[in-house]
């Protein structure tokens, strides 16, 4: 496995302000007394494995829960804020998500006020305004650290220092504050390649000359073609799925129109049939991507192979002889 090293935060109580009875009488909120010295520590595990996620999704989440927690009984219109200071990292432009030194991986701190899945997560900067007198507002009962997928390529390796102050409170009062210390965890990437690329120059399929009578009768010569794809960034011998689809002038899967069809010197009424070595029509839409075949490990790369077949077919309309060239682009899908 390739490892991604992160330095996460250890959250501990920095200070906790409590108020006497005279202060509470004038305060817009009163705090429960069951957890006067409320605090929560986060102890990240020594390693976390990331899972598959779409771009913008959560690759991994570590959660630290607390059985208690502080809550407030407030008058209507009290403004609560959950805030953190800077991580010392650059913002990604996504709210609350910061860039790390690892390609394609961001970091986010969040919290929940309940264990229930129905209770929405909150991410700083977060704000809530009470809607009625006597409303109960709960301080976070669980903190979590999210690793967010920022792009298709997910890299490996790097240490990311993370240190931040935080607070949960209302108005200008600092009701609960916490600060992070530094600890280290290891995030294991056994899911994503760092990158995949084709095996070199463009594939040139020599279709040769073909009589129109053969095209009309369906007895055209079938031409085999293939190319390799090289992927890096995972453990040697890992045969993770790498899919492929195509882009080009295609009316439907498995059919490619000719370049300059109907123009002077070019054939018309003819196209190219395209299938893989299993007879599946080649897709021209990502939603219908098909798998390539893993064949070997080569150095620090995993090598995949795609094999296809092409032949001339009728596409309808007047059939005329001429040049019958066509082009398409293959797109690797290893998201």
What does this structure look like?
With 335 residues, the chain is mostly beta strands. The protein folds into two domains: 2-189, Immunoglobulin-like (Sandwich); 195-333, Immunoglobulin-like (Sandwich), CATH 2.60.40. The protein is built from two helices and 22 strands. It is elongated and about 90 Å long.
Average pLDDT, all residues: 76
Q: Largest sheet at a glance?
A: 6 strands, mixed
- Label the overall shape: elongated
Give the beta-strand count. Answer: 22
Cα-atom Rg, whole angstroms? Answer: 30 Å
Annotated CATH architecture of the largest domain: Sandwich
Order of helices and strands: EHEEEEEEEEEEEEEHEEEEEEEE
What is the percent of helical residues?
A: under 10%
Q: Name the poorly predicted regions.
A: 1-25
Query: How far do the termini sit from each other?
Result: 18 Å
Category by helix and strand content: mainly beta
Q: What's the CATH class label of the largest domain? A: Mainly Beta
Number of H/I helices: 2
CATH topology name of the largest domain, in short, is Immunoglobulin-like
Count of the domains:
2
β-strand percent reads: 35-45%
